[in-house]
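Hello forum,

I keep getting stuck at the same step: I have a sequence, I want structure tokens, and every attempt I make locally crashes halfway through. Rather than fight my setup again tonight, could one of you with a working pipeline run this one for me? It's a single chain of 212 residues.
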Amino acid sequence: MARKFLVLTLLLLVISVFILSGCSSGSANVTPTRDPSVVWSDDFEDGDFEGWEEDDPGWYVNNGVLTSGPDAANPIIHESKVSTGTWSFDLNFDNASYYSICLSCDQDFKNGVGIHTVTTDNTLVALNTISDGTFRSPAAEADLAKQLTGWNHFDITRDASGNSKIYVNGELVIEYKDDVTLSPQLFFLDVEDLGLAFDNLVVRDQVIAIQP
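Reply #2:
Ran it on my machine without issues. Output:
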């Protein structure tokens, strides 16, 4: 009886070790699930900006950050066919006076929705629209009542009704409903200062909840 009990105990031990080993191995090989709403993104950690186009050379990647060089007098452009969803990115405001970003524009820049920031004593954030060549800048504007410095995170959402929301560091600062009909082709970034920095861009085709 004792011998039979010992054999059963050893058998249970072997089975337990086998199960635990299988679980450990399976956990080690789990691949994180990709967010299906992400259409495209760029964190520039590969050291270049492949997929972007410049009219004239002047942009470069420095330590994983897209940076405006001394000749960056023209926008840098990326193909993007998202008109509704969520655009998220980081901007650096050290010595920054102006950023202009078209989130969703057609090929001829006759229709589009974008934002710009202007920093003097305080930082102003604006939502801009272009409709059949008519430019509204700003369509809506917010004075943040402070001057942004260092890195700041922006999220902009736009739904199917044309309602856009701009969040700065998780805080809603602008909500505006436009009547622009978009056939999106482009995302572009423009600056007026040297050494300004842009990073961690994620473009989604779904409106996501923005956490403060």
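The first strand starts at residue 38 and ends at 42. If your local run keeps crashing, start a new thread with the error log.
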